[in-house]
Amino acid sequence: MIKHPLLGMNHVTAMASSPQAIFDLMSKTLGLHLIKKTVNQDAIDTYHLYFTDDTGTAGTDMTFFTFPNQLPGIRGTNMISRVSFRVPNDAALDFWEDRLNDRDIEHDPAESQFGSRHLNFRDEDGQEYQLISDENTHGVAGGTPWRHSDVPAEMAILGLGPVTVTVADQEHMHFVATDLMGYRQLAADGNFTLYETGEGGHGAQLIVEHRDDLPLAVEGFGQIHHAAFNTEDRETLQFWIDRISDYRLPQSGFVERYYFQSEYFRAAPQILFEIATAGPGFLQDETYDEAGIHLELPPFLEAQRASIEAGLTPIETRWRGR
Amino acid sequence: MAEIKFVSGSPLRVPLIVLHGTGGSVDDLIPIGRFLAPGSPIISIGAPLIEDGQSRYFRHLPKGGFDLADLAVQTDWLLDEMSAAAADNRVPLSAAIVIGYSNGANVAVRALMTRPVPYRTAVLFHPMSLGVITNFAKPADAEVWLSHGSRDAIVSAANFTELTNDLTQAGVQTTIFTHDQGHNLNEDELKSARTWLQDSGRLHL
Fold first, then answer.
1. What CATH number belongs to A8-310?
2. Quick check: B134 contacting A, CB < 8 Å?
3. How far is it, in rounded angstroms, from Cα B184 to Cα A227?
4. Would the ipTM clear 0.85, i.e. be above it?
5. I want to staple A125 with a disulfide (CB 3.0 to 4.6 A). Which of A194, A222, B26, B192 is the partner?
6. Where is the VOC domain (chain A) (predicted)?
7. Which pTM was predicted?
8. How far is it, in rounded angstroms, from Cα B29 to Cα B115?
């Protein structure tokens, strides 16, 4: 028995080529709230944009780095291959299919897997996304839709669903997911295996896809950088730091990220996972109305504000659908 | 007492451990570390001994030749310093990458082949063999990049070949860069090492 089971998804961080284009997709089309416009703490010439529900609830958070001069990623095996967003029900999925069509966003026909309907779509970077219907789900609740999006509340995205990890070595990934991370296997369908933790449901699931027929993925824009799993607080995070250390996987140790605290670890070749705390959250250093408009910097970068701002392409994020 | 310096970097990148050459200082390889892997944390461990007015990581025998007994003692010391520095600065020592020049490189590469060490990746500028090895540790999955100048007055071609043969026997995958200068670093070799590190996939956690 794991003393402090992981709660489910905390956030997913991906890489995009254009900060303006990703804002337009995430906020204007998908209706997510840009709750934090800041910079990558390890690369201060790079935007870090956090898109969440109305108030930045852990488990609703999709973030992007936009590294200048990054090359496009090459898809393959050994990559986190898809992020999903929960919508309330099958009727909402139909709404979204129409909305994606209206905005010329490339998508596949809706299909079913593991008892739920989903819709795979992609952006101009080749990033792969999914909308998944919560019609038949259980467990971990979603968040509260952004009050200023132009998406009807009853159709709105509620948070992150399962992330898909595509690997060549299925046994190793199964071991990491179950033995280390404490997820339980729920079902298998062809190359795909579904796992779940804690209260379960779409907010606490992980899908592993076995592909040993593809060349290795190469990191670049249009791909996911890491997936972060939710834990309560600093104390439970330490439990996970110690646990991962016992398993001898490469890990960062405790990292202070100011909006949350983390530990990163190399779960499998080319697969970077993070354990992140549910708080303190995004509205401790600015108000709801300033959030996403003002470039926010954590305290230790504030002294370099002028040079940081000079190094970033300006983007227009002052937008409300209603 | 040796000096140790730490340069902080991204928690998602493994630390570089840099070791300078004879007569050098703890500052010498820090700019090189930054060039080879921008953003990686750097631990620089200065050589602890002075011999004939020059800093060194281990002693010669009074009549000349390497004091291999002292080398063993100083290697123990160096590995302990690495652990302590990593713990103090909260960087993960497992998967650290060693960057060494000359004397520093010599100690690091010999340790890799003869005992368990926390690193399996090394960039070694102008290393030499300290004598044929008989007790090989076989480090799993080890990869090294090493350079040699054809006009090096200190490291002969024969000695360098002895080193690369030992690396092969130890099961270490090697990449060799040569230039036609001496014991010095040049820009081409630094760029080659940088590319090798980037392509190795080992800079990140």
1. 3.10.180.10
2. no
3. 44
4. no
5. A222
6. 8-134, 159-278
7. 0.87
8. 25
